Amino acid sequence: MSEADRPEIAVIGGSGFYTFLEAPREVEVDTPYGKPSAPIAIGTVGGRTVAFLPRHGPRHDFPAHKVNYRANMWALRSLGVRQVLAPCAVGGLQVEYGPGTFLVPDQLVDRTTARIQTYYDAGACHISFADPYCSRLRGHLLDGLAGHDPVDGGTMVVIEGPRFSTRAESRWYAAQDWAVVGMTSHPEAVLARELALCYATIALVTDHDAGVDEASAVSVDAVFEVFAAHTDTLKSVLTGVVGELGERDCSCSHAVDGMDLPVTLP
Ligand SMILES: [Zn+2]
């Protein structure tokens, strides 16, 4: 792959978001952690070379708890990617965040229980994760969503899944003033940071979580239906954002500076 063809930007598609690029070429990538969810699609968007990876595989082969997050992020970085936009479907934990709400979280709470969340199994590699999302990319996403009344900030709690929350769990999350609940932003965000990538997400609310709407509970059909109804909007927003991304003047690229890393980054 020539230098000009190397993608510096990646989009990771969530549930129901399996394609993004027109006539892409596909690259099979292997990593020390296994294969990513799908071959990486590479094409041009907004004048930029962009990589696309459907997080769950092209046919949703990998549910959130089975996604090989380490392979996905490693594969993208090995192709040259340094900036990652990673939309995901979430449940709203507050009444005001109903289906169709676009929220760009600024904080994350990890409630997963069985996922490998690091590349570094030796040495003292403790990265800063106080602000889990790249503030520069967050700004770009909010600008791109300007016509869609986006919510700026909020905490995403990430649960292990694949089951949805109980009402008690959901009410507890809401009582912490957390905004949305999802299943994929962790460990994706922390692995991105360990690879010194910029990473941010658009959380698309597909339903109220179980503790918000006492009359109903989350159904997977509703999740996919609402996500599908907003996929075109999401794609068009991301297309605009990709064209606007500039130089990386944020701190993400220095996330592992000075650390004695037990692995060599690709
Ligand atoms: Zn950044």
Layout of helices and strands, plus pairs?
Blueprint: E1 9-13, E2 25-27, E3 40-45, E4 48-54, H1 69-78, E5 83-85, E6 88-92, E7 102-104, E8 107-111, H2 135-144, E9 151-152, E10 155-159, H3 167-175, E11 180-182, H4 185-194, E12 198-200, E13 203-208, H5 220-244
Parallel strand pairs: 1-4, 1-5, 5-12, 6-13, 7-9, 8-10, 10-11
Antiparallel strand pairs: 2-3, 3-4, 6-11, 7-13
Helix pairs in contact: 2-5
Bound molecules: zinc ion.
Task: Summarize this structure as a short list of keywords or feature phrases.
single chain, alpha/beta, Rossmann fold, binds zinc ion, six-stranded mixed sheet, 266 residues
As a percent range, the share of strand residues is 15-25%
**pLDDT averaged over residues:** 93
CATH superfamily heading? Nucleoside phosphorylase domain
Let me know the largest β-sheet. 7 strands, mixed
**CATH topology (fold) name:** Rossmann fold
Give the strand order, joined by hyphens, for the main sheet: 8-10-11-6-13-7-9
Quaternary form: single chain
